[in-house]
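Protein in question kept in full:
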Amino acid sequence: MRTPEVRHLIVVLGDQLDLESAAFDGFDPSSDMIWMAEVAEESIHVWSSKIRIVLFLAAMRHFRKALLSRQGWRVDYSELDAPANKGNLADELDRAIKRLQPARVIMVEAGDFRVEQAIVERTHTAGVEFELREDRHFYASRQDFIDHTEGRKSIRLEYFYRELRRRENILVTDDGKPEGGQWNYDAENRKGFGKTGPKDLRAPRLFKPDAITREVIDLVEDRFADHPGDLGEFSWPVTALQAQHALEDFVEHRLKYFGKYQDAMWENEPWLFHSRISAAMNLKLLNPRAAVDVAVAAYRKGDAPLASVEGFVRQILGWREYVRGVYWWKMPGYAQGNALQAKQALPKFYWTGHCEMNCLRQAIGQTLQHGHAHHIQRLMVTGLYSLLLGVKPKEIHEWYLAVYVDAVEWVELPNTIGMSQFADGGLMASKPYVATGKYIQRMSNYCKDCRFDPAHATGDQACPFTTLYWDFLERHADDLRLNRRMQFQLKNLERKSSESRKDIAGQAKCIRRNGGQPSRPDNELDSAD
């Protein structure tokens, strides 16, 4: 049977699962068609974890089902294991264009520079008219951010965040002032749990895989058997309805504690008071406005304190919009940033979790088990260690992109290159986020049963974070002296004796020579890698 003539071929990528997308504006079921493709390239251009692959594919297949439930809507969908599937988006789109002969290809802005360029170039080569539409999922457009940067010496989150708060009238008074008198309650968002641990902790709502998701799990276990990650406990929301339920569960049971404890960590507790909605939001299953509005409503009703709600709003309206702006403003060159000239390979244990340091074992272990770690585990455990060790930014970037379920490049890359690794030289962050192991000790119970002592920089019991912290300051002292926010830390370094500094440098060198492991090369943990 001959395929009906196609006026518009609507491209829907795996992170564009929004029924209200601008891509569907003016959609005519009688003459338009939606195109989706599962391709191996998106799972292997970085060695993606099985959890991340399942989330994307399961969400895509559920979205296809939702589209087909609309009267007359047609979806041209290429499954991963289809015999004719060419394995990458550009080739699959080219195959669809040749078969369907559309007059125009329409797509909403992608979340990955590489993907958007591939689609644009392939449609141009195919000689088909292409229309790229603005992604209204976000509060701010790409151009909004560029406009914000004009005339500014530094581009910081805080000012962009305030600008959006005022424009969107979120937690502001009638005269444009911040509700409660402060724009930012970050100082109240840094509490640890103390020795007794978290109280009133309730497990988040989990979503049991249905038949569609189980089929994807079987496919991924077969097709990507050598990839990292454990699918035994897969429970992420893969539909818009599930995402809404996850949001409601968070607001009802954890939002009130989120602000105070959002930076805290606790052994064998991967979720704590976090929301589990970032992945759904980044796949466009959940609108950020819905998340912000329901959180603000909880504050209005007295169900959550202002500091918690503002902290949650800041992550979405502030940080999420800011990093997207930086990404599209500075790509493609931004991905190559390496201001500190880091040269170390990413430790092998980042892919296995086999490591003597309990904090890293906890953060990496839950990442491989669930595809999740919260922002402080990423910034001040896995990210901090790679920064202090001197890992190549591209390698740690690719690891984050591979292992986290909420990782789409527009959000992951600036967080890694700019915030975590200071590889952009200070464009995003005003200073490198470096600390000794004492920070982790203060914010968690990870150090309690760990053989390393954060108070020591040298010797058998020295915490590698502490050793590498002082070594980092030593190696980068000349550059860091130009940063006024690093003066206090550098003065503390100068107070150490030359002998102590020499010993620290020697121990740090041994850690690097041992691939980031603090233990001897013949240690069983090394051989397990």
